[in-house]
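Incident review: delayed structure delivery

Summary: a single-chain prediction request sat in the queue longer than the usual turnaround. Root cause was a stuck worker, restarted by the on-call engineer. No data loss occurred. The affected request and its eventual output are reproduced below so the record is complete for anyone auditing the incident later.

Affected input:
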Amino acid sequence: MLDENPNNSSSNPAADTTSRPAPRVRKRLLPTLGDARNSIRDTLRDAGLVPGGDTPPLILVACSGGPDSLALALAASFFSRRGDYRVGAVVVDHRLQPGSAEVAASARDKLEQMGLDPVLVRQVSVPESGMGPEAAARTVRYAALDAAVEELEADAVLLGHTLDDQAEQVLLGLMRGSGTRSLAGMPAVRGKYLRPFLSLRREQTLEICAHAALEPWHDPSNRDPAYARSRVRTEVLPFLEDMLGPGIAEALFRSSRILSADADYLDAVAAQAFEELRAAAPAGSAPDSEELLLPEAQLRELAPAVRQRVLALAALALGGAQPSYERLAAVQSLLRRTGSAGPVQLVGKVSVYRQPRAKSVHHGAASYGNLVFRKKSST
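Output delivered after worker restart:
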C-alpha cells in the first residue's frame, strides 16, 4: 500500500526538487519587435508572397548596418526560422567614407549570426554627377540591389525606411514646391521593393537593436548639415516639434498616406485619358524624329490635374524626362493661343508646339488642331 502521509518527502511533489528539471522560463517578446514582425508579415502578404511551400519565396534585406536595417533584418529572420520565407541580405558599400569596408564586413557578420543566407556584400563607386551625391549614391545602390535580385532570383527586397524618413521626405517635397505624387512620399510597394517599416518610428528600431544587443553603425552623413535631408532631420523637424507640439512626424505621415491614394487615382485616370487621346504621327513627318499628337479640343475638356499628367505622359512616352511644373505650364499655355505656336522645349530633346487643322480658320477663332510632341533623333 502506498504511504499517504503528506509529510513523507517521497510522496510529496513539492518536496521533490531533484527528480525533474526546473521549468523553462520563456523570454517575453519585446512588443516593438512583435509590431515589426507583424508589419513585415502584412507587407509580404499584401505583395502576394505566400509563405511556405516546397521552395519558400526568397526575401532580401537591404542592410547598411544602421539601426533601421539591422532591426528589419532581425525581425525578418523570424520568418526564416519558421520556414515561411528564405531570408538573405545585401550590404552595399558605397566607399564614400574611411572604414566603409569594415562597416560592411561587420554588418555581414551580424546578418549571418541572425541566420540570414545568403548575405552579399557589394562594393560600388559613386560617380560625380550633376544630380548630387545623395542621388548618385541612391542610383548606384539600387543598381547593385537590382543585380542581386537578378542573380539570386529573389522575390522581394525589404527596405528599412521608417515613419521618420517618410516625414522628412514630405517636408523636402514641400520645400521644393512639388506636386501630389512627391508629397505622397515613398511608396510602401514599388515593384519588388517593399517598405514594411513606414509605420514604425526610428526610435523603435533603436529599441529593437538595444533589446537584441546589436550595435548598429550610425552614418555620420545623417547629421551632416551639408545635406538638406540631414538639416530637416536634425533641425527642422525638432524645431517644428518645439514650436507646434509633438506629433508633427505622424501628421506628415498621415498626409502622405492620403496624398498617395489621391495620386494613385489621378495617375490612373490620366493614363486612361492619355491612351484615348494619343494619335499616330502624321504622314510625312521628318524621318529623324518621333512625333505624338494629342487633340487640343479634348485636352481642354480635361480637369487641370488630369491634363497636366497627360502632357507629362506624352513627354515620357517619347523618352523625355518628367517635365517641371513650369515647363508643363508653358505647354498648357499653348492651348490658349490661336494659330501655330511654340515650340516649348522639354528635357530629353522633346519639343511641343501647337498645330491647327490644315484648313483655314477665322482669325482669332479657336483651332481644332493638335498639340504635337516631337523628339529629335540623336542620329
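Verification: The longest helix spans residues 248-277.
Action items: add queue-age alerting; document worker restart procedure.
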